[in-house]
Design a protein that fits this description.
This protein has 248 residues and is of the alpha+beta class. Helix 2 crosses helix 3 (31-38), helix 2 packs across helix 4 (42-54) and helix 3 (31-38) crosses helix 4. The protein folds into two domains: 2-72, Winged helix-like DNA-binding domain superfamily/Winged helix DNA-binding domain (Arc Repressor Mutant, subunit A); 114-247, 2-Layer Sandwich (Endonuclease, Chain A), CATH 3.30.870.10. It is elongated and about 90 Å long. A seven-stranded mixed sheet has the order 3-9-8-7-4-5-6, sandwiched between helices. 48% of the residues lie in helices and 24% in strands. The chain is built from nine helices and nine strands. The chain has helices at 2-8, 14-26, 31-38, 42-54, 75-106, 120-136, 152-155, 162-168, 231-247, and strands spanning 58-63, 66-71, 114-119, 142-148, 172-178, 188-193, 203-208, 211-218, 222-229.
Length: 248
């Protein structure tokens, strides 16, 4: 149900949503009537109403010996969403400016190279998004790619609008295509490297300092990828690529 899905994003669980919706539909009601309308027991209903009161979504008034609960106007859900958005924005700002740098400073430097392995379409999508994220934050928005013919039909399968997002971010790419083929795209320069092994190797190498990504296809059409996070290795790969690029 779309209402439940939306409310869950505001931290309102399914039971709380059922109680709130029961009050919206039926108006002020006793705990017994709310429990009946929501289809849950009285004890659970009471605890749920307490949580909704704390969130400012439910209020009550005495009527005789009973308390009658009522839902606050649904417009308050918008305010709740806006408050949460402000909190998230503040958290992102704090993470970026203080928390993440502090945590990075705390972490021991156990190695100068970080290696991450990914599998399947989800893994390939993560690598492609990492390229956009990493290059998009750099002054020189350009990365370099070796791409073989056989991998092209698999590469953007999990992320079909990759090129569109790359162009929107004004990210350029230089591509050395191994074997024939490859389509022209905006903000992309392409050169070809003939290879006698192009028909047997499905591989893709992206060089985007401080990282390099290596994608290959195994077991028919199952993609695997490795991201190497090393400034030294990425810069060496960049120099080798640019040297070959100038000679093609």
């Amino acid at each position: 149900m779309i209402i439940h899905d939306t409310l869950s994003r505001l931290g309102i669980n399914a039971r709380q949503a059922d109680v709130y919706l029961a009050l919206v539909r039926h108006g002020p009601a006793s705990i017994r009537d709310v429990a009946t309308a929501a289809g849950i027991n009285r004890g659970t209903t009471y605890e749920t109403l307490k949580h909704l009161r704390d969130m400012g979504l439910v209020s009550y008034f005495p009527k005789g010996k009973r308390r009658y609960f009522c839902a606050e106007p649904p417009e308050l859900l918008l305010k709740l969403a806006e408050d949460r958005r402000h909190e998230v924005d503040a958290a992102i700002s704090s993470l970026r400016e203080d928390v993440v740098p502090d945590l990075q400073a705390m972490a021991p430097e156990l190695a100068t190279i970080n290696v991450h392995h990914y599998e399947g379409d989800d893994g390939i999508e993560f690598v492609l998004r990492d390229i956009l994220r990493t290059v998009g934050d750099q002054p020189d928005k350009r990365y370099r790619v070796y791409s073989s013919r056989l991998i092209r039909k698999y590469l953007y399968r999990p992320f079909p609008n990759f090129t569109r997002q790359r162009v929107q971010k004004r990210i350029h790419v230089n591509v050395i295509a191994i074997g024939e083929g490859g389509e022209d795209a905006p903000l992309a320069a392409r050169k070809w490297l003939p290879s006698s092994t192009a028909d047997s190797a499905a591989s893709y190498v992206a060089i985007y300092p401080p990282k390099c990504a290596f994608i290959s296809i195994v077991k028919g059409d199952y993609p695997t990828a490795v991201i190497l996070d090393s400034e030294a290795i990425a810069l060496a790969q960049k120099i080798a690529f640019d040297t070959l690029w100038d000679r093609l």
